[in-house]
Write a structure and sequence with these properties.
By secondary structure, the chain is an alpha/beta fold. It is built from 14 helices and twelve strands. Helix 1 runs parallel beside helix 8 and helix 5 packs across helix 6. The longest helix is centred in the middle third of the chain and has 32 residues.
């Protein structure tokens, strides 16, 4: 299962957010740096409003949503690339995740110390980026030493890898993440072998106070983070209030909705964040609906029908014949599979069909 790692400076709300995401108290949330040392790992349910309507159509009460794994990683401080704080441990734990959720503090609280002594979201983001870039430059320097020896032996692949390393080094030296390096398809494939921290996809969680959540997107601090994320990294920044989310996680669903409404908020920021992380990991969902259960199945973007069938059971992929497929919207509009079949909306898809997010599928197979 793919993992998203929650990173940030100490005391920005990482552990509180992790507890809210996973609906647990696994991560200690305290007002001092490094209250998280070893990473906490938890499962996060992906909110999906399509499942309840499908359950009504299928006449079942059992709903199984998709899930991803999240990791709460110890806070980073300036100098982490040189081993400051929990530097080496922190960096190693980032190596082990597939995508990054960077929590940026956007709230004032005199009772929660800020490691820099002041509220400065842009400076915080720059600190983390600088430390990751420095760590990657060190990684590339070690890789180049090995590649230079191989290249002198006239090894073609080594020369190509060395050229990619040189491009990446120049890009990182300019203060940019490897993620945005102007590489061609072959160079990007070679770059993956370096396992650079700044090549991982990233999104930002702007952690605001309870009083600011309803109008968070209009706050200058949040807007600046969203602008940076969009223009520099082509990604998202989602406004959340980790403290509110932790409180919501303790409430029954109906009470949680009422609490949000009292704050002038329609949807929990955590729901938006989870869906964004799911897509950031390159994951998509197809659905199955039967009398036993309605389930969201996780696939990778671009997966074909046989690969999707294999997620359910390897025999489904081996003996794949066809996939009876309908969009979620068409099925809900028809009210039943039988009605959809009568209207000709149930398609027969073969091996080359690329499954779309939200497809409702019944696989036919023979082993």
């Amino acid at each position: 299962m793919l993992r998203a790692g929650i990173v940030g400076l100490p005391n920005v709300g990482k552990s509180t957010l992790f507890n809210a995401l996973t609906r647990t108290r696994k991560a200690e949330a305290a007002n001092y740096p490094f209250c998280t040392i070893e990473p906490n790992v938890g499962m996060v349910t992906v909110p999906d409003e399509r499942l309840a309507p499908l359950a009504k159509i299928a006449k079942t009460t059992k709903i199984v949503p998709a899930a991803i794994e999240v990791v709460d990683i110890a806070g980073l401080v300036r100098g982490a690339s040189r081993g400051e704080g929990l530097g080496n441990k922190f960096l190693q734990h980032i190596h082990e995740v597939d995508a990054i959720i960077e929590v940026v503090r956007c709230f004032e609280d005199k009772d929660v110390a800020h490691v820099a002594g002041r509220l400065d979201p842009k400076g915080d983001m720059e600190t983390i980026q600088t430390e990751l870039v420095l760590a990657d430059l060190e990684t590339l320097a070690r890789a180049r030493e090995k590649l230079e020896k191989l290249a002198r032996g006239d090894e073609k692949d080594a020369r190509a890898s060395l050229a990619a390393a040189d491009k990446l080094t120049a890009h990182l030296d300019a203060g940019h993440r490897a993620l945005t390096a102007p590489l061609g398809p072959e160079e990007r494939e070679l770059a993956r072998r370096f396992f650079l921290l700044t090549s991982k996809p990233i999104l930002f969680a702007a952690n605001v106070s309870e009083r600011d959540l309803a109008g968070a997107d209009g706050l200058p601090l949040v807007a600046s983070i969203q602008e940076f994320a969009r223009t520099h990294l082509g990604t998202e920044a989602v406004a959340v209030s980790a403290q509110i989310e932790a409180e919501l996680a303790e409430l029954p669903e109906e009470e949680a909705r009422e609490y949000l409404a009292s704050l002038g908020v329609e949807e929990s920021g955590v729901g938006t964040l989870i869906r964004a992380a799911y897509h950031l990991l390159g994951l998509r969902t197809f659905l199955t609906a039967g009398e036993k259960e309605v389930r969201a199945w996780t696939i990778h973007a671009g997966d074909t029908a046989p690969a999707a069938a294999g997620v359910i059971h390897s025999d489904f992929e081996k003996g794949f014949i066809k996939a009876e497929t309908i969009t979620f919207a068409d099925l809900v509009a028809c009210g039943s599979m039988a009605a959809a079949r009568e209207k000709g909306l149930l398609r027969q898809e073969g091996r080359d069909y690329v499954v779309a997010d939200g497809d409702v599928i019944l696989f036919k197979f023979n082993v």
